[in-house]
Amino acid sequence: MDTAAGTAVVIEDDEDIRALVQAVLEQRGLQVISASSGAEGLELVRERQPVLVTLDLGLPDIDGFEVCRRIRSMSDAYVIMLSARADEVDQLVGLEIGADDYITKPFSPRDLRARVGAMLRRPRGGAPAAVGPAAEPPVPEDPVATAGAVPSEEAAHRLTVDVESRVAVLDSEELTLTRTEFDLLAALFGQPRRVWTREALLRTVWKTEWVKDTHLVEVHVGNLRRKLGDEEWIRTVWGVGYRFGQPELAEMAARRNT
Questions:
Q1: Max avg pLDDT among 17-21, 102-106, 219-223
Q2: What whole-number distance in Å separates Cα of residue 80 and Cα of residue 171?
Q3: How far is 181 from 144, CA to CA, in rounded Å?
């Protein structure tokens, strides 16, 4: 990385907004490089491999959704979409194609700063992250950091989650997961009998107190289920939230690895 905090790429065609976003990110200790078009932004992401990308949807050359798809094919950077489109459908599409967050314009610098800070506190490369305050009962251990490599050998399918290498393998095939999807899977797998509320997942996985953004959890759970190929891996507990679908297998595998 270029600095201790890493590099951020700002893809935004509005000069004033671009300057505002750059100032906010620099306050977080990031080295910021910017682009006014999708093509230029993609080239910067390819060359610099940033930790964070902010992405405007209304770019002059390439649709922002397409830019996000291409970013996801070559980078696991956190992606925050910034858009004047407040329609929920646009937000859901953005999250489904790999964005980690979606902020509508106009936005406050304080809001952006807080959300970026929450992302940068999340684990990278298997490093532990502190669990923020929550109204839920305290978690004895950080589930993302302690899930370990635990294969479910007795299942019809085998799932391995290796936190240190940030690799999830299903039936000998490595899953292509975004950072958020991996962190979510590791949290559920690490405490397989816990029923997670959406708010608790936001606090633990997203490191955010924006607990009204539960649609973030719902969309990423849906994406993760599709990649796992079977909804039985993640069960919905109606009126509460989610839990891992085969807790006894994860527990037996975890005991074998202790």
A1: 17-21
A2: 32
A3: 11
